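ARCHIVE CARD
Drawer: 12
Card no.: 0347
Subject: one protein chain, sequence and derived structure
Cross-reference: see card 0346
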Amino acid sequence: MKDRSIHILNFVGLGFFEPAIRLAAGEETKKNLIALFKKVLLPVLAVGLFLILWHAGSSYLYNVEKDFKIETARIASGNSGVTTELERIETGESSINSLPSPVAVLGAFKTLLADHKEINLKKEAFALKVAPLNEKNLEFNRVNADKIKEGIAAKKKPIKYTGRPSFVDQIFTSLKTVFAGFFLALFLAVPIGVVLGLSSTLRSSFNWLIQIFKPVSPVVWFLLVYMIVKTFTLEYDGDVSFIISFIAVGLCAMWATLVNTTLGVSTVDKDYINVAKVLNLGVGQKVFKIILPSSFPLIFTGLRITVSVAWMVLIAIELLSQSPGLGTFVWEEFQNGANDSNAKIIAAMFVIGGIGFLLDKLMFTVQKFVTFTEEATT
């Protein structure tokens, strides 16, 4: 049981909990206590120190802005102005938009979750209200299918909720976009990387282009994709912003996988290639049975970088495209300027970072399944 638990923890990239398992089993108490302190307790203490410094910094910045407002009121209206300004600050009428404290961010996160529940109730009520009409529209489309196909009658679309999405809804929208962009990067970068890796001539021919496109800003990729996609979607009535966003994310994030795949394929052990020749394997068999399995460690290193880059650039691309998602949420809160807007932005920052961490761990686990290595680095 102990060994199985340790294996699972190491497999999913949580090997730092191994000393706790060994300690619970009564194995080398002193050694595992020291390891537990270094791997778990010290990071927890570091987080605690970070929270203390954050709270102190936010209090300091709050007081600096508060003192400035009070001094400005004193210069303008004397002591009566100071009293009035203090009352306005107390009631929130005069907002102080400095760095929010950890407590304020936690409160904002709770507010966002409560808002999500409220919006879900509105969605359910709306769905019940329009359900009879949607059923009639579906029946109309079924009965008049031939007329719709011939263009005599117009197809009636279901009525959907178009209100403001909640914070949780925007998280799932961002995840859908980043996974679409990641798979686009995967299907583009790996085949191209294999071809370039197999041919030194092609590798040297396209190297300059790769080095030129690799550092291009996500803003530029977004504008380039927008120029092209808008031309092909003139008659498309679906969500064009989603298409533009995930293509831009994929093109921006694919380069690490492309470079690593090329490197992995080009450095496959020559003995493996010689074995493939002895066995008279075809090109396809050689690629799928010899080259790709040997290159998987480097390919997945590239994929881990790609998914991290995709999640990072997604926020900027969503902001530019104004499509629903965390990028748009952060920008709207910044423009909103409400008393809790800064706290909501910081809450979104922690969610973005946490999801990025989980995506990396997901890729790490998939890499273990595919490569069958005992690598324990995280």
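Annotation on reverse: The first helix runs from residue 2 to 11. Residues 238 and 244 are 12 Å apart (CA to CA).
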